[in-house]
Amino acid sequence: MKNSILIFAFSLFSFASYCQDFWEVIPCGGDGTFRDIVVNEQGVIFVAKYGTEGGVFRSDDNGLTWQIKNNGLIPKTIRGIAIKNNNTLYVSSDHGVHRTHDMGETWDWVYDGINQLEYNVIRFGYDSIILMGGGRENAILRSADDGETWKVVCSLYDVDYWEYITDIFFGPNNVIYACSEFTYNWSNNNPKVYYSTDLGKTWNVFWDPEIDCYLITIDFDNEGRLLVGGWTGIFRYDFNTTVWEHIWLNATVSDLLVVPDNRIFLASDPGGSGWGGVAVSEDGGNTYTTVLNDGLIFNEAVGFATDWYGRLLMHSWNYLYRSTDTIFTHIGCQPTTDHFLVSCYPNPFRSYTVFKSVQSSFVNVELYSITGEHLKTFEIPPLGEYFVDKEDLPQCIVVAKIKAGNIFQTIKLIHH
């Protein structure tokens, strides 16, 4: 499942020198299967579980203890979860969409999807757009008013088969991508990649693979290539050459986590056939030769996130895991000293990032490239926000130097 990597610098971590189990199990109460996991800017972890004792579970102490947050949730068959900001979340389920403005303490039912095909994915992006992926005539639903109203913007209805959306990604240049697979009744048709250039209002086919496959997850690598994972591995599209490449793997790829230091983590569910677990590419996605399955109860992996300390979180269908060492070293967006002036989110970012002040006075911000080139200067009003669009910055590591009076803060941002 897709979640913003918090602000990290690259560590000198070496898989080759790792001598203990890579994974440890995080107990998370309640029956049901894990379906999604997200982490907010304060490091609070939210888990979506599907089942009679499922729902939304929240940990405020990095997975040590968990609270079930089902007040107002009509079903407990949660399939997807998305964060708009630190307090507002949305979940998709067999019954539609629920929303919370208080970190899950109370939920409102904002879309009635009863008797429609299950909604497996929900995503938030571009500061205001919420998209939910379902199936057939309700394949993609859209809201631009905090979930108050919803409109069907993509129908995939066909009398011969059931096609449904498996993932949605808010890409660069305000283009949104989605991928699909089939369920119940297979046909000679193929799952596809769809795209929208008008903030999700209309959708067209971006790619028809014209081979037997199903597509599960979609992302971009550090070189700006589109990645689509599913049965038989990864399909990669280069926008410069307009060529699709099939990176064949004896695995069903269920999630991808792209790291700015040229690593890509791959989660594989062996439910169908082939290899299962976690692998990592250390060459930008050309090969996946490092296996990270030590400590797994079963060699299966479904979705990724990262915690505030820079450790990798992963859920299978029945277990929640955390890497026993940090994959990143956290350096920003949380106070490392008493001088915490602003937060910024999302980070890394592709389309925009927002600086939010916690000061009662004006805050001055200067942005520089990693080589020292001055990029932008702006001022944030007391307790205010400042929106930085992707067009304002080059694709690079950006250093934000922040000052309020004689108090200073530095944050590294990754624009890719």
- Count of helical segments? 0
Query: How many E-type strands?
Result: 35
Spell out the CATH superfamily of the largest domain. YVTN repeat-like/Quinoprotein amine dehydrogenase
Q: How much beta, percentage-wise?
A: over 45%
Describe the main β-sheet briefly: 6 strands, antiparallel
Supply Rg.
21 Å
Report the structural category: mainly beta
- Taken from the alpha-carbon principal axes, the silhouette is globular
The separation of the N and C termini measures 19 Å
CATH topology type of the largest domain: Methylamine Dehydrogenase, Chain H
Question: What spatial order of strands do you see in the largest sheet?
Answer: 19-20-21-22-23-24
Overall helicity: under 10%
Tell me, rounded to a whole number, the average pLDDT: 83
User: What is the total domain count?
Assistant: 2
| Annotated CATH architecture of the largest domain | 7 Propeller
Structure description:
The radius of gyration is 21 Å and the shape is globular. Strand 5 (55-59) and strand 6 (67-68) form a beta hairpin. It has strands at 8-10, 23-25, 33-39, 45-50, 55-59, 67-68, 78-83, 89-93, 96-100, 108-112, 121-125, 129-133, 140-143, 151-154, 162-170, 176-183, 193-196, 204-207, 215-220, 226-238, 243-258, 264-268, 277-281, 290-291, 303-306, 312-315, 320-323, 328-330, 342-345, 352-357, 363-369, 374-380, 385-389, 397-404, 407-414. It is built from no helices and 35 strands. It has two domains: 8-329, YVTN repeat-like/Quinoprotein amine dehydrogenase (Methylamine Dehydrogenase, Chain H, 7 Propeller), CATH 2.130.10.10; 333-414, Immunoglobulin-like (Sandwich), CATH 2.60.40. The relative contact order is 0.13. Helix content is 0%, strand content 47%.
